[in-house]
């Protein structure tokens, strides 16, 4: 059975050898034909980690669970069909925790309902190691609240659409995450007396400024640098003294000009 899902490997405890754990690189894992929940059997082969996650999804297991009202979510590293779509948003509206399978939307809805009933501000803390999915889950919370409890005016979209801009200036490729947030973020969503969204405010702190001048190998500068080099007008480039990234002193790090994740391609 799976004991731990790490960034590069799975820790597995063989069912016939309890107490003995082995660490397997993802690329070496293969699933036996689907096993009942709690009895995922694994052996070494070349099949993808994705298959393991897909089986978890089929069984609705392992990816998300609650400890009291804390949601623990594993990053699946690919888009799970319909998990965050409009239908899912609708289905979690007004539902108590535990009524439906664990989901970040359920947490968002609970915070909203508590705010309404207790008439007090509520906080959702999103925590985890780099690449755990904090930024993505924060965006899901914002998307859920603006879709479900927004006023339908452009403020809802503006709150959500501020993110790509913020990420351009504060996120960069690291060895752990192609879109790693190199700053802390405190997002406020403001509601009126009818408990509808009327505004938002994002404060940021601890921006990693040193990254602008120097990056570790395999890492990149902030996304905005490459985007300006690629897409700014000639006037702006002249003003900012920008050229092709290859011409900068930090060219040792420029081997990774382009990030291959789907997310990056869409931005
Ligand atoms: N729920 C999800 N479904 C599909 N893919 C996801 C999900 N959560 C995260 N990912 C993928 O994992 C990548 C890393 O996630 P994210 O940027 O949210 O991590 P993070 O916890 O914010 O890391 P960091 O601390 O480095 O900023 C995303 O770019 C996305 O490709
Ligand atoms: Mg992040």
TrEMBL record:
**Where along this sequence does the record place binding of ATP?**
128-135
Domain of life per record: Eukaryota
Q: What InterPro entries does UniProt report for this protein, alphabetically?
A: Kinesin_motor_dom_sf, Myosin_head_motor_dom-like, P-loop_NTPase
Q: Tell me if Nucleotide-binding is a UniProt keyword of this record.
A: yes
Assigned keywords, A-Z: Actin-binding, ATP-binding, Motor protein, Myosin, Nucleotide-binding
Regarding protein family, the annotation reads: Belongs to the TRAFAC class myosin-kinesin ATPase superfamily. Myosin family.
> What is the protein name for this chain?
Myosin motor domain-containing protein
What lineage is this protein's organism placed in?
Eukaryota, Metazoa, Chordata, Craniata, Vertebrata
């Amino acid at each position: 059975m799976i004991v731990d899902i790490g960034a590069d490997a799975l820790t597995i405890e063989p069912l016939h050898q309890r107490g003995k754990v082995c660490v397997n690189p993802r690329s070496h894992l293969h699933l036996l034909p689907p096993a009942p929940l709690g009895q995922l059997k694994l052996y070494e082969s070349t099949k993808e980690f994705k298959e393991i996650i897909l089986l978890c999804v089929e069984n609705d297991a392992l990816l998300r669970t609650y400890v009291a009202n804390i949601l623990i979510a594993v990053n699946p590293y690919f888009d799970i069909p319909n998990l965050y779509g409009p239908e899912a948003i609708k289905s979690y509206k007004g539902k108590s925790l535990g009524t439906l399978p664990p989901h970040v939307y359920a947490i968002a809805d609970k915070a909203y309902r508590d705010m309404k009933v207790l008439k007090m501000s509520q906080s959702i803390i999103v925590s985890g190691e780099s690449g755990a999915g904090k930024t993505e889950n924060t965006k899901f919370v914002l998307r859920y609240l603006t879709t479900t409890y927004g006023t339908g005016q452009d403020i809802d979209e503006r709150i959500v659409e501020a993110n790509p801009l913020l990420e351009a200036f504060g996120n960069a490729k690291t060895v752990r995450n192609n879109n790693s947030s190199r700053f802390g973020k405190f997002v406020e969503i403001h509601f009126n007396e009818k408990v509808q969204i009327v505004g938002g405010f994002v404060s940021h702190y601890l921006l990693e400024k040193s990254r602008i001048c120097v990056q570790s190998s395999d890492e990149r500068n902030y996304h905005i640098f490459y985007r300006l080099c690629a897409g700014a007008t000639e006037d702006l480039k002249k003003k900012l003294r920008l050229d092709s990234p290859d011409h900068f002193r930090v060219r040792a790090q420029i081997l990774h000009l382009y990030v291959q994740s789907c997310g990056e391609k869409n931005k």
